[in-house]
Amino acid sequence: MKERWEYIDDQEEWMLDHIIISVSDYSASRAFYEQALAPLGYQVVMELGEACGFGILEKPDFFVQQGDPVTPAIHLAFNSRDREAVDAFHAAALAAGGKDNGAPGLRPDYHPNYYGAFVFDPDGHNIEAVCHRPQ
Ligand SMILES: N[C@@H](CCC(=O)N[C@@H](CS)C(=O)NCC(=O)O)C(=O)O
Fold it and tell me: Can you give the CATH number for the domain in which 99 is found?
């Protein structure tokens, strides 16, 4: 397993390096995202006080920190390798206390193979998992 800083070699493949959202209840949001994002292969890979970073392998790219949430709420979409993981994201996010904002399914208005699911996080942010692959 590479160390976090070794992924710097792959950096030309990224456009967004990392995103941080402030949340009103760190413990609640950490638990929500940990559960909701697990089906996508995302897990907490670092934690510093009331802030943690999620990633695949060792490189975190999505951070949750205690603070004042931005208003209006944001929309954040996570890439999913297949449609089953989108389904599992939606089920896990609801089980973690998220509020439904759209059941898993095709959204052909976006493009013919756009398969997404939407859930509001504990602060009302619109969180999505999406798979773009035809299946
Ligand atoms: N309930 C809708 C949600 C669709 C949705 O949130 N789409 C995103 C774009 S992929 C959006 O409009 N986000 C804007 C926002 O949340 O402010 C559904 O199930 O299709």
Answer: 3.10.180.10
Which strand (E) or helix (H) includes residue 29?
helix 26-37
Name all residues whose Cβ lies below 6 A of ligand 1: 75, 101-102, 107, 118, 126, 128
Mean pLDDT, the chain, rounded, equals 93
Question: Candidates 126, 127, 131: which one to mutate for ligand 1, based on the most atoms within 8 Å of Cβ?
Answer: 126
Answer yes or no: is pLDDT of 70 > 80. Answer: yes
Choose among 97, 102, 100: nearest CA to 114.
Answer: 102
- Containing structural domain, residue 23: 4-131
The pTM of this model reads 0.93
- Here the tokens at position 98 are 């998220």
**pLDDT on residue 15:** 84
Total domains present in the chain: 1
